[in-house]
């Protein structure tokens, strides 16, 4: 009979442990701290939605909807999709929960998202995003606040050196229509040189050709007309306020006139924070304004702007994370001391002291455990200490040892 095989991890998923977990947790904790400084509220939304939520808000022709979604029929016959991103679900929640009454709303969330992509460094099938959105604010100040938040997050993570903010405008509806016509004329003139994918894009969404990574498309994309000549006065003024706000806040940016976001609903501001330290997966944080999204979901026309960042990509850029360290390790020697140590450890933990018990091996192995855990103190308990009602407390950095009564341990360690 064949032996049962141990189960495998699904391709493109991760079991995040040890050093990786410390990096991962540090990104999330820093995001949580910084979003509170900017007065953004945390929300949590479902991991799956009706497939239509993503298909309608992202657009059927996007890579995410056409190739990358994890969609399935549930037992009731409904078509559901594991979220490939947060914005569509947040917009859906805004409508179904009647959050219009709280607008403008500044929201953040984080968690796993799912895309069927070819796994490689910095690219997974289940990955994690942090996400920030402002809904119901048509003013450029909202774009600026989100960008300054992103910039502060990268600074506090210590990774802002070598990460550049690239900024573009996609204009308002009038601008987009005029620019689109100019792009179509340009691409039509070079039809014969475009890749097959770009010929499809030319029919469905010509702007995406600008984004193409295919080398055949690059010269044609690079010589395409910029949006600047087509900006309406309003669209130009909007972009100018965003850049003036960034300058006032001391956030460096670069114009990238080729930057278009892959999704249909983007208007005005589009941006990416990019680095050359992650190879082909160089975009760490990306977003823009999506004033058309909530309308496309059947809601009232509502302004929105936001960004998402890959937690794994941010974590990969971090310096070697410091071991958090703990306050103390209790080292009991002998059966009586071990019995007593159980109570002491429980009391210390209830008093808010982070302690571990070392109960395996000889004295030397137990002290080594205290070092490995980065403990500040070792609390040594033997028969002598039990008789005295006081433990030997050794400071592991200096090696000095003092006697501390059991009752005073918590106060001495805090
Ligand atoms: P890319 O061009 O790398 O595919 P994208 O434009 O699809 O990125 P967005 O939809 O803007 O990415 O998602 C926001 C962020 O999520 C990205 O900037 C990146 O940091 C992260 N991200 C996107 N796809 C993946 C993935 N498959 N694995 C890990 N992180 C990802
Ligand atoms: Mg992608």
From TrEMBL:
Keywords: Aminoacyl-tRNA synthetase, ATP-binding, Cytoplasm, Ligase, Nucleotide-binding, Protein biosynthesis. One of its GO terms (biological process) is histidyl-tRNA aminoacylation. This is Histidine--tRNA ligase. GO terms for cellular component: cytoplasm. Homodimer. Belongs to the class-II aminoacyl-tRNA synthetase family. It comes from Sphingomonas ginsenosidivorax. It is found in: Cytoplasm. One of its GO terms (molecular function) is ATP binding. HAMAP family: His_tRNA_synth. Its EC number is 6.1.1.21. Residues 1-332 form the Aminoacyl-transfer RNA synthetases class-II family profile domain. It catalyses: tRNA(His) + L-histidine + ATP = L-histidyl-tRNA(His) + AMP + diphosphate + H(+). L-histidine binds at residues 85-87, 115, 129, 133, 261, 265-266. It is an enzyme of class 6 (ligase). It comes from the Bacteria. The keyword Aminoacyl-tRNA synthetase applies.
């Amino acid at each position: 009979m064949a032996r049962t095989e141990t189960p495998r991890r699904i391709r493109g998923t991760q079991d995040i442990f040890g050093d990786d977990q410390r990096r991962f947790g540090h990104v999330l904790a820093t995001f949580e701290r910084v979003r509170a400084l900017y007065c953004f509220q945390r929300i949590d939304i479902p991991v799956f939605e009706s497939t239509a939520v993503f298909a309608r808000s992202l657009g059927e022709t996007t890579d995410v909807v056409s190739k990358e979604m994890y969609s399935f029929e549930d037992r009731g016959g409904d078509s559901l999709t594991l979220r490939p991103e947060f914005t569509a679900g947040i917009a859906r929640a805004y409508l179904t929960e009647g959050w219009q009454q709280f607008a403008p709303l500044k929201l953040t969330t984080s968690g796993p998202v799912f895309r069927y992509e070819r796994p490689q460094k910095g690219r997974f099938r289940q990955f994690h995003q942090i996400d920030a959105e402002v809904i119901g604010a048509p003013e450029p100040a909202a774009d600026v606040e989100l960008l300054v938040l992103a910039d502060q997050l990268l600074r506090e993570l210590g990774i802002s050196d070598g990460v550049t903010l690239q900024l573009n405008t996609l204009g308002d509806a009038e601008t987009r229509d005029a620019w689109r016509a100019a792009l179509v004329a340009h691409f039509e003139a070079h039809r014969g040189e475009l890749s097959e994918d770009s010929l499809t894009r030319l029919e469905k969404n010509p702007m995406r050709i600008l984004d193409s990574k295919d080398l055949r498309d690059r010269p044609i994309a690079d010589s395409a007309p910029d949006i600047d000549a087509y900006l309406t006065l309003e669209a130009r003024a909007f972009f100018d306020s965003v850049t003036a706000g960034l300058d006032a806040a001391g956030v460096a940016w670069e114009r990238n006139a080729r930057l278009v976001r892959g999704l249909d609903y983007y208007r005005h501001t589009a941006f990416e924070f990019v680095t050359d330290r992650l190879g082909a997966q160089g975009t760490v944080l990306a977003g823009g304004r999506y004033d058309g999204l909530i309308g496309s979901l059947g809601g009232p026309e509502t302004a929105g702007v936001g960004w998402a960042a890959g937690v794994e990509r941010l974590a990969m850029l971090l310096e070697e994370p410091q071991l958090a360290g703990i306050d103390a390790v209790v080292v009991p020697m002998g059966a009586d001391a071990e019995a007593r140590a159980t109570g002491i450890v429980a009391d210390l933990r209830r008093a808010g002291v982070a302690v571990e018990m070392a109960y395996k091996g000889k004295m030397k192995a137990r002290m080594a455990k205290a070092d490995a855990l980065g403990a500040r103190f070792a609390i040594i308990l033997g028969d002598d200490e039990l008789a005295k009602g006081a433990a030997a407390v050794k400071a592991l950095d200096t090696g000095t040892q003092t006697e501390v009564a059991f009752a005073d341990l918590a106060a001495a360690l805090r």
